[in-house]
Design goal:
By secondary structure, the chain is α+β, with helices and mostly antiparallel strands. It is built from seven helices and ten strands. It has helices spanning about 45-60, 70-85, 135-145, 155-170, 210-215, 225-235, 235-250, and strands at about 1-10, 20-25, 25-30, 100-105, 110-115, 120-125, 130-135, 195-200, 200-210, 260-270. The strands form two sheets. The chain has a five-stranded antiparallel beta sheet with strand order 1-10-9-6-7. A five-stranded antiparallel beta sheet has the order 2-3-4-5-8, covered by helices on one side. Strand 2 and strand 3 form a beta hairpin. Helix 1 (about 45-60) crosses helix 2 (about 70-85) and helix 6 (about 225-235) crosses helix 7 (about 235-250). The protein is globular and about 55 Å long. The termini are close together.
């Protein structure tokens, strides 16, 4: 197997809250959620959470015992929660949490697990691209933000409604009918999006955090087949470089995006 990894912090002076790592036959990518106020709840921080959870996942996957990916994740969430339950308020909805994306080559198939909004790109033999993601957080965010429609930004009314919308979104986290993310409850693992594909049907696999996926949406710098070609010709770092170049170009504008941590893993199990 061959894995090409690249990651970039969204801004200087802040830790990168993404995590990416690989062991023979498996790759893990996490996107930590830096929620305002979390630093008062957890002395360790979001970057610590993703590093601890990611390291635990890689340790489990390195044993190659064939356990169900959801079971591996459930145990890792429980172990990570136990590591700071005694010192931090991990039950608070704003405490450290992360999206999870895992892939594993096992018995001739590529198994995947996704929890919240990371992106898996399957490069199929014959040239097609299949995208796998967990859209539940995006749907919940869109629904919770509807009261903001038509309200002028940067006004007291907007700020008040926005705070209410944020609270409504947090209330849907790790709840039936809402969305699921790795945090303090191992049961979230059993709600993950899972599946598998015959390895003979794949030329390669790419894993992208939300910050890296901006190259397709909302920046529209290319499409998913274009991402595949960019990875094949220039590697994972090229995807992030394109994202950062665009963000630098529009920086200072009225609608300039806030750069996010960005991470890419390009996995070629047949290489």
């Amino acid at each position: 197997m061959h894995v090409d990894l690249a990651t970039s912090a969204g801004s200087a002076g802040r830790p990168n809250e993404d995590f990416v790592g690989a062991v023979p036959g498996a790759v893990v990518l996490l996107d930590g959620a830096g929620i305002p106020g979390a630093e008062r709840l957890c002395a360790h921080g979001v970057a610590w959470y993703t590093q601890r959870l990611g390291g635990t996942l890689l340790g489990s996957l390195s044993r190659a015992d064939g356990r169900d990916l959801a079971a591996v994740l459930a145990d890792a969430i429980g172990e990570t929660a136990a590591a700071h339950r005694g010192t931090c308020d991990i039950a608070d909805p704003r405490s450290p949490q992360a999206t999870v994306l895992m892939v594993r080559a096992h018995r001739g198939r590529l198994e995947h697990l996704l929890l919240a909004d990371s992106y898996l790109v399957l490069d199929q033999v014959g040239g097609g691209v299949r995208l796998v993601t967990d859209e539940r957080e995006v749907v919940a965010r869109r629904e919770c933000s509807m009261p903001l429609n038509g309200i002028p930004p940067a006004t007291p009314e907007y700020d008040q409604i926005r705070a209410t919308c944020a609270a409504a979104l947090r209330a849907r986290r790790n709840r039936p009918g809402g969305y699921w993310i790795a945090k303090d409850d191992p049961r979230a693992a059993w709600e993950a999006v899972t599946g598998s594909t015959d390895l003979d049907e794949l030329d390669g696999i790419a894993l992208l955090s939300n910050g890296a996926s901006r190259i397709v949406s909302p920046y529209a710098l290319t499409d998913w087949p274009g991402v595949r070609e960019l990875l094949a010709t220039e590697g994972s770092s090229a995807v992030i470089r394109r994202v950062r170049e665009f963000e630098a170009k529009v920086s200072g504008g009225p609608d300039a995006p806030v750069p996010d941590d960005a991470t890419v893993a390009h996995y070629r199990p047949m290489a």
